[in-house]
Design a protein that fits this description.
Structural class: alpha/beta
Helix content: 25-40%
Bound molecules: oxa(dethia)-CoA
Oligomer: single chain
Largest sheet: 5 strands, mixed
Shape: globular
CATH class: Alpha Beta
Low-confidence stretches: none
Length: 371
């Protein structure tokens, strides 16, 4: 049986920054409220398709591993915001990268996608079925936000990360993992008016709306991630004090603090970047992992604990042991095309569209009430 070692890593965040002050120019919110309730100060807004974020992350990860894309045998991409339903985004990336031997598969478990993907890839490498896998996790989630809903629009941002996985005979990579889903509460995060469950021939179709019960998600996230962390540590026979770094899903700084307190980890061991990127869903963990490596916070042989919670309501946790190498073998010069707009300029037509729609809905509601 082989272990799935992470031999390459790369990330890509689009350049346009949307600050809390920017949000307060069109939503009834404030920097003070957003920072105190979530710890988020700004997030990024993509000016390109999701596959372009994926492609740059992938090229950087492949360079770090010094793996030729032609040698990949699987590309797995975790996201809920793909370029299109058909072809899937992994296929687009397979073609652009020049990886014709690779199977190409998208998975969607929302914020837990990267850890779900790791869980699956670990098995595929362990059995010898695959030898060089590119796993990508990320999101162009600002594309799917309703810009008149302050409860959800302030939380999310765009980003992507990728890793290369290769077999190793040493006990490295993902040592233990758990995945699960609290589907009884799936309505707590719901993106509506888009998908086959929704009536197509109405004015509402494609005006996405978020049903979002932040408090419910908050409580469940802390509880489930903490339990899943305990379970993976137990399975691997590792004590929490031996964990060098925790790389959690970044949804809310208060969730991270509560998780750290529950599992008994000091704050300095927890990687936190939610203040700079917000919640990038399937992108949070690979991006935080890459930043932790670049900042020298992960050392050879370290135990790295990770957990996530999100739409579904899915949850996941994984305990990793890092290999010998914490620096890239090569670097890539892959970059996104330049962006000549501010985040507010990129969003302006969408904000206008959602504001007009919210006004129309309100007017209909008033008319119906007065009838
Ligand atoms: O990765 C999985 C997805 N992530 C999540 O689902 C995040 C989990 N939940 C959270 O992070 C937090 O619950 C939030 C940050 C979303 C909200 O924080 P909260 O402390 O749970 O606030 P709340 O939802 O209980 O709202 C408190 C008040 C409400 O007003 P009233 O009813 O007390 O008058 C809201 O209407 O804050 C109001 N509010 C806002 N005010 C200003 C809600 N959103 C905003 C806003 N700006 N953006």
């Amino acid at each position: 049986m082989y272990h799935a070692e992470i031999t390459g890593w790369g990330m890509c965040v689009p350049p346009a920054r949307l600050t809390n002050h920017d949000l307060a120019t069109f939503l009834d919110t404030s920097d003070e409220w957003i920072v105190s309730r979530s710890g988020i100060r700004e997030r990024r807004v993509s000016h390109v398709n999701f596959s372009e974020l994926g492609l740059v992350s992938a090229r950087r990860a492949l360079a770090a591993a010094d793996v030729d894309p032609a040698d990949l045998d699987l590309i797995m991409l975790a996201s809920l915001t793909n370029d299109s339903y058909c072809p899937n985004t992994a296929s687009i990336i397979q073609d652009e990268l020049g990886a014709p031997r690779a199977g190409a598969l998208d998975i969607n478990t929302a914020c837990t996608g990267f850890l779900y993907g790791m869980h699956l890839c670990r098995g595929l490498i362990a059995t010898g079925q695959h030898k060089k896998i590119l796993l990508i996790g990320g999101e162009f989630i600002t594309h799917y936000l309703n810009w008149s809903q302050r409860s959800s629009a302030i939380l999310f941002g765009d980003a992507c990360g990728a890793v290369v996985l290769e077999p190793s005979e040493k006990p490295v990579g993902l040592l233990a993992s758990r995945i699960g889903c609290e589907a009884d509460a799936k309505e707590a995060i719901q993106i509506t008016n888009f998908g086959s469950a929704y009536e197509r021939l109405t004015d509402d179709f494609l005006y996405v709306k978020w049903n979002f019960d932040g408090r419910e998600v908050f409580k469940r996230a802390v509880k489930s991630m903490a339990q899943a962390c305990v379970d993976v540590l137990d399975e691997a026979g590792v004590d929490i004090s031996e964990v060098a770094v925790v790389v959690p899903h970044q949804a809310n700084k208060r969730i991270l603090d509560a998780l750290a307190a529950r599992i008994g980890v000091p704050e300095e061991k927890v990687i936190i970047n939610v203040d700079r990127y917000g919640n990038t869903s399937a992108g949070t963990i690979p991006v935080a992992l890459v930043e932790a490596l670049e900042e020298g916070r992960i050392k050879p042989g370290d135990y790295v604990l990770s957990a996530a919670f999100g739409g579904g309501l899915t949850w996941a946790a994984g305990l990793f042991r890092w290999g010998d190498r914490v620096t890239p073998l090569k670097t890539s010069d892959a970059e996104l095309p330049p962006c000549d707009k501010t985040a507010l300029e990129l969003l302006a037509p969408h904000i206008k569209r959602y504001q007009e729609y919210a006004e129309r809905e309100k007017a209909t509601e008033i008319r119906e009430q007065s009838c």
